[in-house]
Amino acid sequence: xxxxxxxxxxxxxxxxxxxxxxxxxxxxxxxxxxxxxxxxxxxxxxxxxxxxxxxxxxxxxxxxxxxxxxxxxxxxxxxxxxxxxxxxxxxxxxxxxxxxxxxxxxxxxxxxxxxxxxxxxxxxxxxxxxxxxxxxxxxxxxxxxxxxxxxxxxxxxxxxxxxxxxxxxxxxxxxxxxxxxxxxxxxxxxxxxxxxxxxxxxxxxxxxxxxxxxxxxxxxxxxxxxxxxxxxxxxxxxxxxxxxxxxxxxxxxxxxxxxxxxxxxxxxxxxxxxxxxxxxxxxxxxxxxxxxxxxxxxxxxxxxxxxxxxxxxxxxxxxxxxxxxxxxxxxxxxxxxxxxxxxxxxxxxxxxxxxxxxxxxxxxxxxxxxxxxxxxxxxxxxxxxxxxxxxxxxxxxxxxxxxxxxxxxxxxxxxxxxxxxxxxxxxxxxxxxxxxxxxxxxxxxxxxxxxxxxxxxxxxxxxxxxxxxxxx
Length: 472
Hints:
The protein has four domains: 50-146, Thrombin, subunit H; 160-261, Trypsin-like serine proteases (Thrombin, subunit H, Beta Barrel), CATH 2.40.10; 268-361, PDZ domain (Pdz3 Domain, Roll), CATH 2.30.42.10; 381-467, Pdz3 Domain (Roll), CATH 2.30.42.10. It contains ten helices and 27 strands. It has helices at residues 4-48, 73-79, 110-113, 249-261, 279-284, 303-307, 326-334, 388-393, 412-415, 435-442; strands at 52-63, 87-99, 105-108, 118-122, 128-130, 132-137, 142-146, 168-173, 181-196, 201-209, 221-223, 229-234, 244-248, 268-269, 272-276, 293-298, 314-318, 321-322, 341-348, 351-358, 360-361, 381-385, 402-407, 423-427, 430-431, 450-457, 460-467. A seven-stranded antiparallel β-sheet has the order 5-4-1-2-3-7-6. Strands 8-9-10-13-12-11 form a six-stranded antiparallel β-barrel. Strands 15, 16, 17, 18, 19 and 20 form a six-stranded antiparallel β-sheet that branches. Residues 365-378 have low confidence and may be disordered.
């Protein structure tokens, strides 16, 4: 009979041996995996690197030697007449880009080449070319620079929609002038909307990554582990640590032909000013729930006007697909082809109707913004009747309505963005043009009620729900 102690010793030895074998195997497997990943990244750098270019630009700024000495506007205007004293000072900038076809078209950020008078493109092999901007689009921050060269290495464009959060990505560019820099990270998030730049430009649906993206990286490619371009890097938040952004390459793929052949991006256009349907607005428009997107104004001669849409309509679906935010509506419209007909499901006065709209191209001189407001629980405004002078100054087409002359700090009107000079055309869906009409509506409101205002500003109208509450 085998001794139990011997069995125990053999069992312990076997377990320890198995532990060491598994540990060794896992270590070897991990080392092999890291080596494989390292080799893949090095291979991607070697393969795609030749298609990445360095972009050096020069902009010129006019200055006057008197500006620093005379801050008074009178003296500035006086010395402006002496043109011979004005100087053009060069300002240098740098960025990255990548070649998208063998004919020498390079994709980069618009802000990299904005107002550039001189553009030098340097390839990875050291060759230098003079570049020319043949197409640009501020809204998407993309531009095409053309160089006179053929048979160039081309970066392969991938599918940014298939990216997953946590997926490894690689950036190649020239941060701070350091050529051919490769950095690695992961996709931190998708669908980011960021306001950045000196004018607060709204960048939408960006890819967020912790891959190091710095000035000079802008315009370079963000790559997946297959070596495909999935984004265009854009350094829009200075000094950010571990927060970089890239424009999805699928946006670029939709716009490339327009940028190359037309020099601009054509956008599908409906022609309405829109805003979020809040519970307060839903109540005023007799909606069962806060759904859809409210039309605050309809642009003259737009597809929306021709189709019969009107202020106060609530768009709840496009081609039978529900839309519940201004951005959803805008994204849906922009995904349609110019000239294509769209079926809009609209609620008007409690009734649901179908409107067929032929999508047009957005006019280049028309800036269509989303009118979204956040409202608080207080209200407080003072009004006066509109006079011909007030109407003329406010570009109001008619002499009617009430002009806001004061807004109480901390009130609902103040918090939601109402300001002096705004014109109230309607209160609770009723046209008003006199103080008695205003007072007749106000006196019937109680604390907790909502006052729905139709406000005219900058030649357009939008709805504002104001919560009535006693002010201290």
